[in-house]
Write a structure and sequence with these properties.
The chain has 221 residues and is an alpha+beta fold. Helix content is 35%, strand content 25%. Strands 1-10-4-7 form a four-stranded antiparallel β-sheet. It has a four-stranded antiparallel β-sheet with strand order 2-9-5-6. It holds the Pfam family HTH_Crp_2. This is CRP-like cAMP-binding protein.
Length: 221
């Protein structure tokens, strides 16, 4: 299996971009465990994440949660807002603060200034293209792969060879509960628990002190 795009968008560090946004945008802080955007809300600003992590999710009619992606420092929210001369959009997902957040808001006037700067244009394009590529991969996965394969791919994307102690078993770069994994791959907690046990019997993974480790033979370099 190949390591491609992952639900966790790792921090994107660009000091020039950060200083530019901080100079022109205005700062707000959001406490952890807060839903600060909900479906149906009117959005009139682009948001730059200066620090912290945000989760973007939707809920089905039965209450089941599906996490679209998790963003961290250096990424944008609603970065396509002002495309085609639009002045606002309507939120389609819940956005929550996984940690304390520091955000910078960019309105239409500030956007007109910043879009003339190459570093800002490149960052907007990067944010849009990475989200599109990841969501396309997610759509293909949900359409073509069974839940077990989605779970295996999810673990492979999270595997962390650098932290391996023996080069045989790879730990994961992030820890998730079974419920959180279920929300990410679009199933339920019971199914995740059952499949982890099944994959352990197949020697695809092992669980040490409640932490999943993957057998390196199943992961491409």
């Amino acid at each position: 299996m190949e390591r491609e795009y992952c639900v966790n968008f790792e921090p994107y560090i660009n000091d020039e971009l950060s200083e530019l946004v901080k100079t022109y945008g205005y700062r707000i802080e959001v406490p952890a465990n807060t839903y600060y955007i909900k479906p149906g809300e009117k959005l009139t600003e682009i948001t730059y994440i200066a620090s912290g992590s945000t989760s973007h999710s939707m809920f089905g009619l039965t209450g089941q949660e599906k996490i679209s992606y998790i963003l961290s420092a250096g990424w944008f929210l609603t970065e396509s807002l002002f495309a085609n001369e639009k002045m606002f959009s309507i939120a389609e997902r819940y956005t929550s603060a996984l940690t304390d957040l520091v955000l910078y808001k960019i309105d239409a006037n500030v956007y007109d200034i910043l879009i003339e700067k190459k570093v800002f244009r490149d960052a907007i394009i990067r944010s849009l293209s990475n989200k599109r590529a990841f969501l396309q991969r997610e759509l293909e996965s949900v359409t073509l792969e069974c839940v077990k394969e989605r779970l295996k791919n999810f673990f492979v994307l999270l595997s962390d060879p650098v932290s391996s102690k023996d080069r045989t078993w790879y730990p994961l770069s992030h820890y998730y509960t079974h419920q959180e994994i279920a929300s990410i791959i679009g199933t339920n907690r019971v199914t995740v628990s059952r499949l982890i046990s099944e994959l352990a019997r197949e020697d695809f993974l092992r669980v040490i002190n409640k932490r999943v480790e993957l057998n390196s033979i199943h992961i491409a370099d």
